[in-house]
């Protein structure tokens, strides 16, 4: 296992000297450690067939908050291919979920694993990685997600707005240290809950560009998959969607329409409450992320108290508190089960360059105990602002997702009231329809992916790569 560290750049050396001789308190975390270049990983046989860099960037000087990233260069021409920043969905879900389970160049070998062996779960090369078409910068955000951490517990008290601004800080510092990528076409992307803050981040970057801030990023647009835009529970679209796919009956659908009158979150009468209780019971019979898949228990999230998190910065406890129950091998959640043991393996952490004491236990999502403010009421205005400026935008949905049904996404895209440039039509892969798409004025494209679930590249990797690679290269779907 060879882990290489980049030599400090002259700028870093100068800053270290200034800090040393001046004794500036702010220098404590102002200079981030050099990134780690990785040529092999536990569980993968042989050298990695791509360039992988990991590292930390300090985004909260006062509290010592640091975001952890994985940067994978394009398998094509990294000096010319687009650069995509990919952000995780969920309040504090790790981006490693996207890297190893969805759109990255590695995936787990799905095979029996009892969680007790010292050997990490095995990995194999993923042929439909989005790195075929772009370099991808995977970011654990907000602070507390994945391997990102804070020295002071106060650093975990963030929300959608503050953590988005920290992402912008991250980009400023990352591009300063990676100026070779400033000329590459740059895009921001994310799925699910990230749909709320991806357009907000893109707008903040565009405002910096307009203000002449440096370094100047070559922002071209953004993309969101199965995106949320507000804190609504999407009952409004779950009801007609689940009726259309025969999960609820005509009678129940008509009763909900009559009794609830659009009031799904807080029923205004007993009849509506009764109907929604029956709806929830039927909804609970299917796998929400993909209605055709086997219903399985998901890998549980694991809350970590911020006080405990602060304690483990100085003590290596080595105790895993949220070991998941092993799901059946044919469950989609099995990959998440494997990721828990792979990421909590000491050799894995050493290979990735994880700071000792920074993270006691890695979990897929940590949504329960740490404070997180949902302070972006709706992202619709940011979508409107960015598309009005002419930035390229792709909104895509898996058509078998019952968490955020495509009907709701199609509806808010249509509500922008942009003229249609290319009418609703099928898009194809290998001579067959792979979904349907419509293109609007202002560089806005909406598309469905046939057979896709809540995460398109997880359930339909070949179609996911096709839609991404065509769109980001400027080709028609």
Characterization of the model:
With 477 residues, the chain is an alpha/beta fold. The chain folds into three domains: 3-225, Rossmann fold (3-Layer(aba) Sandwich); 248-283; 393-472, Rossmann fold (3-Layer(aba) Sandwich), CATH 3.40.50. It is built from 15 helices and 17 strands. The strands form three sheets. Strands 1, 2, 3, 4, 5, 8, 9, 11, 12, 14, 15, 16 and 17 form a 13-stranded mixed β-sheet that branches. The chain has a two-stranded antiparallel sheet with strand order 6-7. Helix 4 packs across helix 5.
Strand content bin = 15-25%
> For the residues shown, what is the average pLDDT?
88
Helix % is 25-40%
Q: What is the end-to-end distance?
A: 42 Å
Major sheet: 13 strands, mixed
Could you name the CATH homologous superfamily of the largest domain? Alpha/Beta hydrolase fold, catalytic domain
Rounded Rg: 23 Å
Indicate the structural class. Answer: alpha/beta
Helix count equals 15
Indicate the low-confidence ranges by residue numbers. 1-30, 300-318
Shape summary: globular
Q: Under CATH, the topology of the largest domain is which?
A: Rossmann fold
CATH architecture of the largest domain: 3-Layer(aba) Sandwich
